[in-house]
Design a protein that fits this description.
Blueprint (H helix, E strand, L loop, with lengths): L1 E8 L3 H12 L6 E4 L15 H4 L12 H6 L2 E4 L4 E5 L4 E4 L4 E9 L3 E3 L16 H12 L3 E5 L3 H12 L3 E5 L7 H4 L1 H13 L3 E3 L4 E5 L2 E4 L4 E3 L2 E4 L3 E3 L2 H5 L4 E2 L2 E4 L10 E3 L4 E5 L4 E4 L3 H15 L11 E6 L2 E7 L6 E5 L10 E6 L5 E7 L2 H13 L6
Parallel strand pairs: 1-2, 1-6, 2-3, 6-18, 8-9, 8-14, 9-10, 17-19
Antiparallel strand pairs: 4-5, 5-6, 7-15, 11-12, 12-13, 16-17, 19-20, 21-22, 22-25, 23-24, 24-25
Helix pairs in contact: 1-9
The chain binds flavin-adenine dinucleotide.
């Protein structure tokens, strides 16, 4: 059996940062990163943006250059799915039946696109991996029209990129405006305007009833004839390995403390697959963002090296729709009211800040477009539990 000191399952930001955190803190011995992905670690954010628009190629989105892996003495095994975890035996089994032993393990298995639960839903394209993005890009080459099902960030970004390629694109979603259920109606108006600026149509209040080759049928009875259908209806954490091993989950995510320790000895989890205790918030916060996966991975690797580390930063992300970047910092687990400020000059799709407040008026989030001073202030206000400057 192959033995490792630190075994990391995954190849996203949580995985690579875990390796870095371990080495940066004098973690010694053999570090092995095992991933089901066919490609060496790469960045996902460009998949729905530059790469889909054809502005960057697969070779330009490496998460780290090969020299980084050599310098840090981190081995990467691609195309290798881990199928079982035995926490008592400190080992995992891969799809070809090989066992790999570990002293410490980091589960950084991320998430997969949730299936579209309608007849024909299994025939549509989804977007999570580089292979998905290349398949979508190829399909877009021969397409005149596309429907993107779902108005989350990945759906909006992909739709804007398809439109930028000259594909006539419609986003179909149940919300009256994109993201309005989660982020409120003011945010929804801005996202609707950003989609419009990017040349995308938004079909509101629409539930997809079925998909068949060349068409999408809505519950209103309307059928849209289309060349390309993409579903972006949310993600499902890849927590099956942990669940089968008896590790504690909550709502499908692996529960970890602020040092990323799971309920099993010497097993850590980080990134989209985890719900981590945030020391500043004082509660578990599930996140689905690049920077948070990166931060949590670093904490897991540091803790695996035996050095105290905890996750205490405010979560957040940036999303780029067309050529406009919206920045968000928030605990992300709810708010009581919002305060919308467009500074009196601009309309939907132009610069704005939306402050998210709890019932005591404490800032719990901020969404901004071209208001970097508000975005920067927001992180400290959220961290310190202070009111918004409104
Ligand atoms: C198209 C797209 C655009 C995005 N844009 C943004 C953005 O602009 N800003 C932002 O903040 N976030 C963005 N995100 C989200 C961000 O990419 C994720 O939050 C982040 O990648 C999560 O990192 P992770 O390390 O937890 O997992 P992932 O990056 O999902 O990596 C998990 C890895 O684990 C592997 N794996 C899973 N199960 C197994 C197994 N059993 N055996 C072996 N390997 C396994 C998978 O193959 C995968 O490579 C985007 C995501 C996508 C898909």
């Amino acid at each position: 059996m192959r033995e490792t000191d630190l075994l990391i399952i995954g190849s996203g930001p949580a995985a690579v940062s875990a390796a870095q955190g371990y080495r940066d803190n004098d973690g010694r011995g053999r570090v092995l990163l095992v991933t089901a992905d066919a490609h060496a670690p790469y960045m996902r954010p460009p998949l729905s943006k530059d790469l889909l628009q054809g502005e960057s190629g697969p070779g330009e989105i490496d998460l780290q250059p090969q020299e980084w892996f050599d310098d840090h003495d981190v081995e990467v095994l691609t195309d290798t799915e881990v199928t079982a975890l035995d926490p008592d035996g400190h080992r995992v089994t891969t799809a070809d039946g090989s066992d790999i032993g570990y002293r410490h393990l980091v589960l950084a298995t991320g998430a997969s696109p949730s299936p579209l639960p309608v007849p024909g839903g299994d025939t549509v394209l989804t977007l999570r991996s580089l292979a998905d993005a290349l398949a979508l890009r190829d399909a877009a080459d021969g397409a005149a029209s596309a429907v993107v099902i779902g108005a989350g960030f990945i759906g909006c970004e992909a739709a804007a990129s398809l439109a930028a390629r000259g594909v006539s694109t419609t986003v179909v979603a149940p919300e009256p405006a994109p993201q309005s259920t989660r982020l409120g109606s003011d945010a929804g108006s801005h996202f609707a305007a950003l989609l419009e600026q990017a040349g995308v149509r938004y079909s509101a209040g629409a539930q997809v009833e079925s998909v068949s080759e060349g068409s999408v049928r809505l519950d209103s009875g309307v059928t849209i004839d289309v060349d390309l259908v993409v579903a972006a209806v949310g993600i499902t954490p890849n927590s099956g390995l942990a669940a089968d091993a008896g590790i504690t989950l909550d709502d499908g995510r692996i529960v970890v403390d602020s040092s990323m320790r799971t309920s099993a000895p010497d097993v850590f989890a980080a990134g989209d697959v985890a719900t981590a205790f945030n020391d500043t918030a004082g509660r578990h916060i599930p996140t689905e963002h690049w920077q948070d996966a990166d931060d949590q991975g670093a904490v897991a690797g540091t803790a695996a090296a035996g050095v105290r580390a905890q996750w205490d930063s405010v979560p957040g992300f940036w999303t780029t729709i067309g050529d406009r970047t919206v920045k968000y910092a928030a605990w992300g687990d709810g708010y009581d009211r919002t305060h919308h400020s467009d500074h009196g000059t601009d309309g939907p799709g132009e610069s704005f800040t939306i402050w998210y407040l709890d019932s005591d008026g404490v800032t719990v989030g901020a969404l901004t477009l071209d208001r970097d001073e508000d975005y920067e202030a927001a992180t400290s206000l959220i961290e310190e539990g202070k009111p918004a400057p409104i």
